[in-house]
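Can't attach files on this board, so I'm pasting raw text. These are the components:
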Amino acid sequence: MTEAEFLARYDPADYPRPALAVDLVLLGLRGGRPVVLLGPRAQHPHAGRWALPGGFVGIAEDLEAAAGRVLREKAGAAQAYLEQLFTFGALTRDPRMRIVSVAYLGLLTEAALAEALAQAPSLRAAALTLPAAPDGPAEAATERGEGLPLAFDHGEILGVALRRLRGKLDYSEVGFALLPPLFTLRQLQDVHEAILGTALNKPAFRRRMLDRGWLAPTGRHEAGTSYRPAELFRFQKTP
Amino acid sequence: MTEAEFLARYDPADYPRPALAVDLVLLGLRGGRPVVLLGPRAQHPHAGRWALPGGFVGIAEDLEAAAGRVLREKAGAAQAYLEQLFTFGALTRDPRMRIVSVAYLGLLTEAALAEALAQAPSLRAAALTLPAAPDGPAEAATERGEGLPLAFDHGEILGVALRRLRGKLDYSEVGFALLPPLFTLRQLQDVHEAILGTALNKPAFRRRMLDRGWLAPTGRHEAGTSYRPAELFRFQKTP
DNA sequence: TTAGTTATGCGCGAAATGGATATAAGTCAA
DNA sequence: TTGACTTATATCCATTTCGCGCATAACTAA
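---
Top answer:
Structure tokens for the assembled complex are below.
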């Protein structure tokens, strides 16, 4: 049999295929720190560890559709900003069988985070921290700082997610996905500082954001403060 | 049957799975313009169109290993810088069956490009251009400017690839993957200008690159020029 | 020796940035 | 009503970065 004949008869349907899944890194902010939604693993493997919400991709299901379905069914969040992050395919990432997982990054506003936690009681919002190393896994912890062991390669996935978000924050519009429709400049700066983990210079931050053309002034101001109320802005896409 | 019982018995191995493939965007430079390696499709579907080198992922094969295997077997290139690009999973991207493809970006030096073309005679290096739209597909053409029709969603993949490369070029080290081990600052600038499609200011480019700490002077100079020979540099990773 | 060509280095003005400070606008308590 | 207090907003200035022109260096060719 020549190579051409072999190739003509080659049918990948005859060969075993890896299973294909999606995993969701659902990030929000709480108390000025990034948190991620994790669920407990009750059974083997990695019983007792904490895992990202995920699910298998249907044979007639788009990748984005699968991510949206997992978001609805397993995280109880009706809507969130979702973007594809990276595809993880190491041979040993799941001891049961070969599973290749397309990871998605999802950003939740404070309201969406609260709704997700209410709809999916088994999930918890774990504090997310990143070691100083240029790459490597992120770490999850409770509010009190007790480390939460992560299942599978989900620490690696979280590391990629938080670094991607940090890298895109300044030049892209992702930061607004963590804010309500109306927000103040201080709230926007709080979001950036929480994600980056560093303090930012206020006048410089204001200038940069206003020059980007992303902020539409509303003329309205926040209410209920005991000090001078800040103006409320709305996000508008760059034309 | 309760949901818990259903989930306990649920075995994704029982359900049909999408096929999983890798596709390689192998970019190089020729005549100061980006080119991509494409192969002709002889059979249905998309017969007569041009496609990226690709292959199915083995059940016991890493994603990176699959990309490396395709690079060796179908593109004849022994080594190239490879990085994961994006995963394409639209339902209709292949009319035969559901195929999810993990696209990889590969960068070839001029020598590697020539070697690949010699080893894999069916491939051709097609000129790659990007319409002005912020997203959408890229276009391939012959040296004379005649358009080459692309198979499947490979135009979309090429669009993502070239935009990713443009975005990373300035702040990352990918540019050096298109150069031989020893190179001049002018060659480095030529690479950047070819990828970005714009002219760059020479003194500013020199300053920025030298300040990055990526360039190790060798003291040696290029030979065979009919003008002042430029110093040869070597790429060194940032410490 | 001279013209031609490119590499390399220098200097200047524009623009962006960090940081401090002044002023504005609200609440709250006396 | 007034003044202390807090935060928003605007202004100003020193520093850095960047774009850009130009002078000088180094080599070949005639």
